[in-house]
Amino acid sequence: MKNYQRLKGLVAATFTPMLPNGDIHYAVIDQYAQHIADSGISGVFVCGTTGEFTSLTTEERKLILKHWIRAAEGRFKVIAHVGSDSQCESVELSRHAAEIGAWGIGSIAPSFFKPSSVHDLIDFFKPVAAAAAELPFYYYNMPSMTGVCLPVSQFLHEGKQEIPNLVGVKYTHSNLMEMGDCIHLDNGAFEVLHGYDEMLICGLALGAVAGVGSTYNYLASVYLNIMKAMEEGNLISAREFQMQSIEVVKVIIKYGGGVRGGKAIMNLIGIECGECRLPIAPFDKGEYDSLRKDLEEIGFWGK
């Protein structure tokens, strides 16, 4: 693999900026990338769940990635999410990511026709990873969305034998026992990227050194402080910063979760991401007013 080094720090799962008519607002990505670079974030995870990948066309995903790679200018890593229920589409997206200079790729499990075994999941991912063989490949494990609950440690151990560029997992699950098992599997052979922002402190305590999250987009300083406090062994400070994260997550849950509520927050901080595509309902003015008030009450603007 070319220029591979393990991830450390924060990887922002990016939102997909959209115009009022639902078209992609590509021009915003330049401003968005500058915001990421200024935030001290190590990388971006493009067109994942936060990016509404299931609501995008293949060509849109390609163009979005192209804009991110150009706008990043090497200041942070760009990881392309290439997951799809169609293996053919995933292969196409993977090949494209490698051709245009993505740093790495990741893929969620297919979720309509689901793999029934680890072997099936490995077989699904083999040609996807092979299409970008020089890039690190991460399995994006998110059973709450996919309904695929196969043992991740088994996938990593057995998958590495057939997928040479498999380096780890984006672990978006609350099963911390399994997460710890993955971190220490085969003497720490795999990267485990923590996926639940409101539980980052737990992943760090188990040994994770990097996380991928949507709230990193607008709350990076809080998570960087969690990481710094944990590195220094200051658990009290780390807990305090994690509670700040939890308060924000509670607010976005009130407004429909990390994609809908988080995208609205991006608009409030001046990164015009627009609304989500249906079936995720748009925000109305009253909701924006209420969201702004809720954020003020928890001191969001001073974080």
List its traits.
single chain; 303 residues; alpha/beta; 8-stranded parallel β-sheet; 46% helix
What is the topology?
Layout lengths: L8 E5 L14 H11 L4 E4 L11 H15 L4 E5 L5 H14 L3 E5 L9 H13 L6 E5 L1 H4 L5 H8 L6 E6 L4 H9 L6 E4 L5 H7 L3 E4 L2 H16 L3 H20 L5 H9 L16 H13 L6
Parallel strand pairs: 1-2, 1-8, 2-3, 3-4, 4-5, 5-6, 6-7
Helix pairs in contact: 1-2, 2-3, 3-4, 4-6, 8-9, 9-10
Tell me the total number of β-strands.
Answer: 8
Largest sheet: 8 strands, parallel
Query: Order of helices and strands, N to C?
Result: EHEHEHEHEHHEHEHEHHHH
The strand order across the widest sheet is 7-6-5-4-3-2-1-8
* Derived structural class: alpha/beta
Question: If you had to describe this structure to a student in words, what would you say it looks like?
Answer:
With 303 residues, the protein is of the alpha/beta class. Helices cover 46% and strands 13% of the residues. The protein has twelve helices and eight strands. An eight-stranded parallel beta sheet has the order 7-6-5-4-3-2-1-8. Helix 2 links the parallel strand 2 and strand 3 (77-81). Helix 2 runs parallel beside helix 3 and helix 9 (216-231) runs antiparallel to helix 10. The chain starts with 8 loop residues before the first strand and ends in a 6-residue tail after the last helix. The model has no long low-confidence stretch (mean pLDDT 97).
Give a quick summary of the entry.
The chain has 303 residues and is an alpha/beta fold.
